[in-house]
Amino acid sequence: MDRNQATGLILFAAVILIYSIFFASGPEVQPEEEVSTNELVSSVEEPTMDQIPMEESGSDTLSQEKIEKYGVLAPLTQGEEELITLENELIRLDISTKGASIKNVILKEYKDWEGKDLALLDDVSSSMVNTLNTTRGPVQIEDFYFTPEVTSETTEEGKEVTLLTLKAETESGSLIHQFSLESESYQVKKSFEINRFQGVFTQNTISLDWKDQARAHERDLAESRRKTQINFYTEGGSYDNLGVGESLETNVPEEPVKWIGFSQRFFTAGIIADQAFDNVTLAQSTPTDSLFVRNMEAQLDIPINDGKADYQFYFGPDKYKVLKSVTEGFEKNVDMGYFFVSWVNKYIIVNLFSFLEKYFNNYGVIIILIVLIIKLALSPLTYKSYIGMAKMRVIKPEIDELKEKYGDDPTKMQQEQMKLFSQLGVSPISGCLPLLLQMPFLFAMFFFFPNAIELRQESFLWATDLSTYDEFIKLPFTIPFYGSHVSLFTLLMTVSQIIYTHFNNQLTTATGPMKNLGYIMPVMFMFILNSYPAGLSFYYFVSNVVTFGQQALIKLSVDDQKIRQKVEENKVKNANKKKSKFQQRLEEAMKAADANRKK
Predict the structure, then answer these.
(1) Are the C-beta atoms of residues 108 and 317 closer than 8 Å to each other?
(2) Which of 74, 300, 317, 477 is most open to solvent, judged by the fewest CB atoms within 10 Å of its CB?
(3) One biological process GO term for this chain (predicted)?
(4) What is the reported pTM?
(5) Structure confidence by residue, pLDDT tens digits, 447-470
(6) Domain over 64-331 is classified CATH 3.40.50.2000
């Protein structure tokens, strides 16, 4: 569900719920004159072709064309390509000795929907092209061959770090790439260093053009495309994205960018700056090929300070706690919802899942336990809501009398109702307000379950994957706004909601069309949620069953006669009670409105 869909759905649900409750219940660039001999831009002129050492230019395979294009860098274009593997317990990277390019990234813990290795990047659908500006024009580092060396070291915390160093050198200088991968980490630290080559390079930046055709790793292609987009976070601390539209979309951030994420539904490939990226241009579009969910591209400049550029990559799952530990704002690659519901997911649901995962490996059971824990925590609000509705129920005879007496005069009817509520010590919103306080938990689930990688490929009962719809029956035709399948969890949720609405109507004073209004929302949600994650429908089904049980227990413990007795006591107590200033002002406003209506 994208944000536009969620907004419409939340507004629709909120209106129906409230209506039914009330009536049915960049680093600074140094001046050129101050550039030292350690920086890339040097006042020393690049050696001419005649000055290139014989051992660098005398090779039979080193053409004159290459010498003219690359100058002293020409010998680096000779060599043989080899793939070097850098891996830990979580990820595996294949890095080419030609250009020191990342060719493949495999996430070891996960499989795609067909059961194959999950390749977050591969050499067919993705590429990273690094460019340096020289006195002879731009050259791509991918044209150069490097010599690899793999070493390891141990951090102070006792974690093993694997280092892959790729070096290309001539007598004029050397280019060095280094990849660093710590055990049990999805982060790959990267550095690029230029030693000497005085007078060759003309800028203190390395330009990166990263293109990726994100492959379809999930069965539901439409939902995957809705959840795949480019996210970015600026140096000033603001987050933005390119949205989820079908057409080509581009964005040129006005300020330097701290990180960029090629974010899919459950996984992110991101690049994080040590300082900030300059001259960033982002673009994305939707391909026609069903093998891919989104075409994404990021062009950026990485600053080189004292001959060295440092940055890092993230290749891993969209787990909120994992992303939050990467860098500031990186957890925003997981959509936790709008501000009024995101706190529920960030501080309650995520931690509950994390805690329960330590003791249970069945996610259906975990969902049931989360429902029980939340319902138990909110039970005081549920009790107050029930008592509020019970008070309205016991004074129904008085309300009916007012309807018979003032039914033709709505303004007078409202005035007399307010007077009655004041005398009896009953508030018409006493049953509504506790339910409204529970709404953030209700709507938070619309954002959590569609983005919860914890549910990915986890089965429960007949559902083979709780992160997508449970196809209980495959239809030979497509029903508009519904789909070509039947989700049994969604049907169960709908039936349970209708039963709950029927039970709830017995506790309220609603009559006529207002009494039937509560049946509309479950039917609407049946169409909406039929293609949404089975875990979401299952959560609402269990929640309805538990709520029904709660109210049945409360009903057994609440005596309507005692509530009526309390109301009568309030009636005697408030017989001579003066109207509050608020009541007086409200009545005056209603009278004025009625007078204007009659004119």
Answers:
(1) no
(2) 477
(3) protein transport
(4) 0.81
(5) 899 899 999 999 999 999 999 999
(6) no
